[in-house]
Structures are given as C-alpha cells and as structure tokens.
Amino acid sequence: MLKQERYRLFVDYFSKHQPNAVTELHYSNPFELLVAVILSAQCTDKRINQITPALFERFPDAESLSKASVEEVFAYIRSVSYPNNKAKHLVGMAQMLMGKYNGEVPPEHAELVKLPGVGRKTANVIVSVIFDIPAIAVDTHVFRVANRIGLTTNAKTPLAVEKQLIENLPKQTLGVAHHWLILHGRYICLARRPKCEVCPLTHFCRYYQRANTTTALLRAAAAEQKKLKNAKKKKLDKATDKALKKISIDPSRQAE
Ligand code: SF4
Predict the structure, then answer these.
(1) Residue 256 — very low, low, confident or very high, per pLDDT cuts 50/70/90?
(2) Measuring from each residue's beta carbon to the nearest atom of ligand 1, which residues come in under 6 Å?
(3) Rounded average pLDDT over 52-77
(4) Residue 108: is its pLDDT beyond 90?
(5) CB atoms inside a 10 Å sphere around CB 10
(6) ∠130-134-135 over CA atoms, to 5°?
(7) How many CB atoms lie within 10 A of CB 113?
(8) pTM of the model
(9) Residue ranges of the HhH-GPD domain (predicted)?
(10) Over residues 36-60, mean pLDDT
(11) Cβ contacts of residue 43 below 8 Å, gap of 6+?
(12) Closest by alpha carbon to 115, among 182, 175, 31?
C-alpha cells in the first residue's frame, strides 16, 4: 500500500470517528495547560489530573507560582515522576513568565522553548492546543503508533517523526492528529501488546499486515513440511510392505 493511501485512510477514519479529540489533561486556561504539560513528561495524564486541582488552587497564575519556593511546590507534586526537577522548572517557568512575558504564556514556539521545563514537544502542544497554530507534538505514543501504522518510514527520532507527519498530514489536521495518535496508543495500540484484535485500523496498518503475512508464510511452510513428511512416510511404508511380502513368499526363507 502506498504511504499516501495509508494517510488518507488514517485521516478518513479518525475524522469520522474522533473529529473532536482533545487532550485528557484538565485545565482551564493557558497557564494551567502549560503547568500540566510540563508535569506530564514521563508521567500519566491520570496522575497529573489527580494532583493539579490542589496545585492550581494554591497557585492559580504565574504570579503566585513565581513567588513560591521549590519546596512548597514539591509538596504538591511529590507523587509525579521527577518531582524535584519539575518543581524547579515550574517556579523558574513562572518567574520567566512574570519577568519577560507579563505573566502570560507566549504564543511563539521560539519563546516557549526558552522557558524552564519546556522542550519542543511541550511547546508544540501549547501552540497547537491554545493558539491553534499547526504543529504536532511527538511523544512516546505518537512515535510508536505512527511508526506501527506506517505513517513514518525509518524515522528514528521524534523530530524525524514530526517532520514526516507534517509533510504528509493535511495542515488543518495536525493538531487533532496528535490526539488521535495519543489516544489510540493509550487505549488500543499499547506498547507491549497492541490490541490488534479490536483495532479498526488493521486494513491499512503496516505492522498488522506484516505480522499477518509472516504468520501466513510460516503456516504455509509448516503445512508444506507436513505434506512432505507424510509423503515420505507413505513411500517408506509402501517399500516396507513390499519387502515383507517378498520375505513371506520366499520358500527358502520360510524353511529357515
Ligand atoms: S492493527 Fe495493531 S499495531 Fe496496528 S494500529 Fe491497530 S493495534 Fe496498533
């Protein structure tokens, strides 16, 4: 199947079935989303949603967070991964927002990546979700699922995946495609054991088709071997019968 055909089927399926896919992180303004996305690195959205209500209540904006101590923030986020670093990043990020951006989250990707704790992926999420700028953030789910389906070829890094997706997806679907891939990876195309048996994408998924072709080839080879073995056995049985028959009718041997 041609790559373009795969992209077409991918966009068709999700446009029809999940046209309004959104992030599962809870937030009510750009500042909260930025905090939640920084916290979500190497952690689950579920865990982040458990701790952010109290965190947002205590630090509702960049100003309040910029005045907090790292230790105080740590106490609110201790159950997420890398709480020490993340607490430092959050305070540093809020201080920079206050010092350089008037307490607001800047819409430019180049400015966002200057904030502590904000890398390319986080900046892509913010510009896409908050400012509706075409961008696609590549996290572990996007990386894996895009590769399995066959939307990418030999893409070894998140940046390579990002470039190939941008090159091939219709511009207006970039933002939502990020959520399609994440949600599909989170609930169906699991890292260790993809649930292909319930997946609606098997008719164009490269991973599924390759796995099935391999299985079919292995089955055919096993059947051929069995056939050969049976034929050999039949031949041997026939030869044995013939030999036994000969012995039983040989008078000289009967006398022995
Ligand atoms: S068919 Fe399997 S490998 Fe392909 S996208 Fe679906 S779950 Fe993932």
Answers:
(1) very low
(2) 148-149, 188-189, 194-196, 199, 201-202, 205, 207-208
(3) 98
(4) yes
(5) 24
(6) 85
(7) 14
(8) 0.81
(9) 39-187
(10) 96
(11) 80, 81
(12) 31
**Residues 46-80: b if buried by 16+ CB within 10 A, e if exposed:** eebbebbeebbeebebbeebbebebeebbebbeeb
Q: What's the pLDDT at 158?
A: 95
CA of 40 to the centre of ligand 1 (A): 25
- Helices H, strands E: what count in the chain? 13, 0
The answer to whether 121 is a known catalytic residue is yes
Q: Which two tokens stand for residue 22?
A: 């959104």
pLDDT of 226 strictly over 90 = no
Residues 6 or more apart in contact with residue 82 via CB below 8 angstroms: 41, 42
State the sign of the Cα–Cα–Cα–Cα dihedral 86, 90, 96, 97: positive
Q: Pick the catalytic residue from 121, 163, 195, 234.
A: 121
Ligand 1 midpoint to CA 102 (Å): 45
Could you give the angle at the alpha carbon of 103 between the alpha carbons of 98 and 109, nearest 5°?
Answer: 100
